[in-house]
Amino acid sequence: MATIPDTPTAAVEIHGLHAAYQRQPVLEDINLTFPAGLWTAIVGPNGAGKSTLFHVLTGNMKPLRGTVHAFGHPIAEHRRAGHIAYMAQREAIEWDFPVSVWETVMGGRFGHMRRDAWWRRYMPARWYHPRHGDAVRDALAAVDMLGFSDRPIGALSGGQKKRVLLARALAQQARILLLDEPLAGVDPPSEQLILDVLRGEREQGKTVIMVTHDMPSARRYVDHVVLINRVIRGAGRPDDMLSDAKLAALAIARVESTAREMAPAASPLSTALDR
Ligand SMILES: Nc1ncnc2c1ncn2[C@@H]1O[C@H](COP(=O)(O)OP(=O)(O)OP(=O)(O)O)[C@@H](O)[C@H]1O
């Protein structure tokens, strides 16, 4: 866990954010800061609005009102500059699409290609600027998937799909990484690999923001935790935010019990909550 400065620089600042689907409120008056260069976990029960918050940050959803800034500028400027990478949940991707692992990860470079010479953009992939291929190779190597480059994405296992999605986000070489449940549905070795990759990104100064239901990993690895259930229910250090009392209040005792099956010891309070 990194040491948090008393007044950390804000990577993302959200003020007075409201979001709704068909007038049904999902996020209400969100005021939140994600510290720069740190690893934040967003924790909340199913339906709490975690993915919706990411949809707003990635520009896929327009909020009803509120402002979002990244490093002091409207977040849309950073999106256009390719500073924000997003890893969706596995379910959000069309896996039957006939593309290879390499091509999928290259998708993470399309934002950067806008700055390339115009003629490269109208040429077959082998004419892409070599730095895009380098970024894809590095990202696939980081998640140990380089050997699967030519494989169709539909022929991957669930854990391999997660790694490819992470590689696509890494290939963007963005300042801010938004990861929606990167640890869900992967086996312990893949989980460890993903955690190590994210720790490496944080050590390089990247701001890592992940949604997770995996409390043991959040306790062990992240620097900062945001509790959310349509409204912000708390933000601070993992040991403060992830106490049994706070999690019970957030109504995620059931999720916590699932995650705890992998943890070394159960606390009496959460055991009682599970009964
Ligand atoms: N496209 C949509 N249209 C209408 N309602 C939606 C849509 N997407 C999400 N919702 C609703 O918005 C609420 C928040 O959903 P969201 O996916 O943001 O929750 P979440 O915290 O990410 O949940 P989970 O942990 O299950 O992924 C839920 O009640 C959900 O049913």
From TrEMBL:
Q: Which Pfam families match?
A: ABC_tran
Arranged from A to Z, the UniProt key words for this protein are:
ATP-binding, Nucleotide-binding, Transport
| Keyword check for Mitochondrion | no
The record, for InterPro entries, names: AAA+_ATPase, ABC_transporter-like_ATP-bd, ABC_transporter-like_CS, Metal_Ion_Import_ABC, P-loop_NTPase
Which spans of this chain does the record mark as coiled coil? Answer: none
Q: Which domain of life is it from?
A: Bacteria
Asked whether the UniProt record includes Metal-binding among its keywords, one would answer no
Which molecular function GO terms apply here? ATP binding; ATP hydrolysis activity
| Residue ranges of every copy of the ABC transporter domain listed in the record | 12-255
Q: What family does the database annotate?
A: Belongs to the ABC transporter superfamily.
Under what name is this protein listed? Manganese/iron transport system ATP-binding protein
Please tell me the species this chain comes from: Vreelandella subterranea
